[in-house]
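Example record used in the benchmark description.
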Amino acid sequence: MLDQVRIEAAEKEAEQATDITGQLAPWLRLLADEDEEMRSAALSALAGSRLRGDEMTKVFVEAACAPLPAARWQAMWWFGDEEDRGVGTAAFDALTAGLRDADARVRAAAAQGLRFSDPAAIDPLLVALCDTDADVRSNVVIALKDFDLPDPSVLEALISVFHNDLDLEVREEALHALAYLNGSQALDVLRLATRAEDLRLRLAAALALSNSRSLPEEHRLELVALMLTDSNEEVRERAVRSLAPLFDKQPGAASLPLWHAALCDPSEEVRVAAIEALPLAGQGLAERLSPLVFELLEDPVAEIRNAAIKALKFDASAPVPPVFLRLLQSSEGTDLQARRLAVQALAYRGRADDTVPLLLPLLNESTLTREVTDALIDLPDRRALAPLLTQLDHEDDDCCANAALALAAIGDSEAIEPLIRTLNKREPYVRRRIVWGLSFFTSKHVMPVLTESLSDPAPSVARTAARALLETLTPAQIRALLCRLPLLRRLPAPARELLRRELGQELEEGDSSPGPNCQRLVRLGTIEYE
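Model output (structure tokens):
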């Protein structure tokens, strides 16, 4: 207890100091204490502080030579946590020396601390691959991978580790590092791992394959084909996910049989993985497999059905699948999650002509109203005008707010007065969305509402009104508006600051600044509010 009191006293004294010398002074006194436990606790607290600089480095360089292993480990940890990773400093020398420490924990921390540092660390790390401790060797392999330098000596050493190391985890890390650094060099190793008796190695090979950046497509497909015949479903699942493109590379038509096999796999987990990865494979390939995905929409397993609904989001040109019609027209409460996903998928598809008539009847279902009003924001259609107006009285704030934005997207002036009437009856969460929605109308009735909303007691509403005015008026118009507001100083601070910050430079430049377009090209459904 006494140690903790002294630690807290040192922290308080350091906080009150104004320079690095004063901030370090209370810690240096504790580090000179005769009690080893006290010195270790002080060093740990100091390592966790935000203090940085040459003076701090000097403290931990001394700690790296301390007789207490815990102190040396703390030093390695601190060096590795520096922003510059110790490059070009005494920290780098301390870390490389730490690789030869008598304590394995210190050596492991030193190896971890050398990640991303000076490439000069590669040679001592290669020597440390022969360390007697498996944790040290594992950290060394990870550090070599993180240098991201496919040096031949590094690749050869990692291949040797995979073949000869007695620790399975170290071999797994070597496999990951090889696949990441140079897929072609790792090909033979990956082939061996996919046929290994040990399940962990086969799983590691599947994961390494998904992280490989440079493996040619034909070799990737060769390995996936091997993995899809594995008796373990987790291996097959990981293999399927590696079919998705990495680093903007899309698998071509040669992968089609593998996708087909994965979508028909006996394991539910593998089929779900295939469906979830399919949209990433590119529109052309996904469209060729869409008939099979349509079949999965009626799979008896709910997770597969739901994944298939999500996967169909990419196909905007296809007609509404019959299974969607059945889902949307089924009785309330039937497969609710699938019905919600179907609504979202149709909104993403973005075709109001045949979608809005399907969605409007669902506004009467309390379990789907929120999803439907949200979907209608992205499907502006005058047929939804009257149903959306009734949603302004909905007791659920999200439904009312969604309806306001959906009405703004439609843009019919018939919605202006109902929106204004609703404004004063709702919470700030809804008011700010109504204000934002009103700003999309050009009626003369809207400007007074936006101006009055600048004085809304809720800062979020006032800020939204200010932002709306900034986006709808020219600087000259804003200046004229502010001149007619004698109570500008009474505006809530967020609105006042936003107006001043955004307009200051433009108003100094005069009236030559171009005004906004007549049509505000803003996607209402993605507006973020602070």
